[in-house]
Amino acid sequence: MTLPERPLVMGIVNVTPDSFSDGGLYADTASALAHGRDLLAQGADVLDVGGESTRPGATRPVVAEELDRVVPVISGLAALGAVVSVDTMRAEVAAAALEAGARIVNDVSGGLADPAILDVVAGSDATYVAMHWRAHSDRMADFATYDGPGGVVTAVVDELGERLHAATAAGIDPDRVVLDPGLGFAKRGEHNWELLTHLEAVAALGRPLLVGASRKSFLGALLAGPDGTPRPPGEREHAHSALAPLLADLGVWGLRVHDVRATTDALAAWQAWRTHRSPGPAPTTGQEQHR
Ligand code: PMM
Predict the structure, then answer these.
(1) Which 3 state secondary structure label does DSSP give 162?
(2) How confident is the model at residue 290 (pLDDT cuts 50, 70, 90)?
(3) Cα 197 from chain centroid (whole Å)
(4) Which residue from 21, 35, 52, 130 could staple onto 26, CB 3.0 to 4.6 Å apart?
C-alpha cells in the first residue's frame, strides 16, 4: 500500500438512529445516500457506512437490522463510483457489504468481536482497518485501565500488534491492513491525548494509520464551558480541524471525519504551506528584506 500525498478523508455515513453526534439524521436509505453524495461533493476520498452505533453505552442492532441499514446505502454509493468502507464488526455484514461494492472493511474490534470477519476479508482483496478495542460499547468504560508499564501507548501498540498478527494469520496480506488507535474506545480523555501525541509508536508496527478523533468527547471536554459542560458534538469541529495538519505531518493514512469540508480545507492549507516551504531558498524574514 503506498501512502497518499495527504491523509485520505473518510467521510462518516452513520445509518443509525443513535450515533453520538449524528444519530437519526441519516437513518433511512434516502437520507444516507443524499448525505454520502454531499460528502463526496465536499471532497471525501472514502465513505464509511455504518449501521451500528458504537457510542459509549450503545446496545447492538440485530444482524438483519444492520444489513438492512447498510447494504442499500453501500450499493447506491458504490454505483456512483465512490470508494466505500463498511464500518462493521460482523463477518456476515462485511461479506454482504463487499458483495454490494465496499472496498474497505473497517472493523472497530480488529477481529475480536467476530473472528470470522478475518476470513471474509482474507477471501477478498479489500483493505482491512483493525482498530484497538477491548469490549462492546455497553461495557467498554470498565476496560479503560492502562496500568502497565508504558501506559495506554504500550498497551495499544501491543494489543494492535496482536490484531495485526491475527489478521495475517487468517491470510490477510499485511500490505492490506491499516491500524487505528481507537480513540474513545475504552479510553478516557487523557488516554486519547496520550495516544494522539505518541502515534509514532503505533506507526512503528509498520502499517498505515487511520485516526478517528472527529467530534469525540475528549474534544467536548477540552472545549467545555466554565461550568464544565462539554461542548456539544456539532461544535467541536474547529478543534478537530486544528488536529488534521498535525496528523498529516505524522504521515497518517486517513482521517475519519464527520465534517468533510472542514477537514479538506485544513488539509488544503497544510498542503499549500508545504508546497511553498520547499524546495526553495533559505527563508528570509521581513526585517532582513528591509535592511
Ligand atoms: N469511531 C467510531 C466508529 N467507527 N472506526 C474507526 N476505524 N475509528 C474510529 O475512531 C471510529 C470508527 C465512533 O464514532 P461515530 O459514532 O461518530 O461514528
Answers:
(1) helix
(2) very low
(3) 16
(4) 35
Cα(111) to ligand 1 centroid in Å equals 15
Q: Is the pLDDT of residue 289 over 50?
A: no
Q: For ligand 1, atom 2, which residue shows the shortest CA distance?
A: 54
For the chain, the domains span 8-290
Identity of residue 79: A
Interatomic CA distance for residues 248 and 231, integer angstroms: 25
Q: For residue 32, which of 9, 10, 49 has the smallest C-alpha distance?
A: 49
pLDDT at 282 over 70: no
Helix H or strand E segment including 211 = strand 210-211
| Alpha carbon of 50 to ligand 1 centroid (Å) | 9
pLDDT for the residue numbered 239: 97
So what's the pLDDT on residue 140?
92
Atom 9 (ligand 1): residue with closest C-alpha? 212
Taking the CA of residue 131 as reference, the ligand 1 atom at the shortest distance is: 7
Q: How many other C-beta atoms lie within 10 A of the C-beta of residue 266?
A: 24
- Enumerate residues 6+ apart whose C-beta is below 8 A from 255: 7, 8, 9, 10, 210, 211, 212, 213, 214, 244, 247, 263
What is the per-residue pLDDT for 45?
A: 98
**Cα 266 from Cα 270, distance rounded (Å):** 6
C-alpha dist (Å) from residue 179 to 15, 201, 279: 23, 12, 32
Which ligand 1 atom minimizes the distance to the CA of 23? 16
For the domain covering 8-290, report its CATH number: 3.20.20.20
210 Cα nearest atom in ligand 1: 7
pLDDT at 89 over 80: yes
CA of residue 242 to ligand 1 center, whole Å: 19
Residues in a beta bridge with 257: 11
Q: Predicted confidence band at 280 (pLDDT cuts at 50, 70, 90)?
A: low
Percent of the chain with pLDDT over 90: 85
State the cell numbers at 99: 458483495
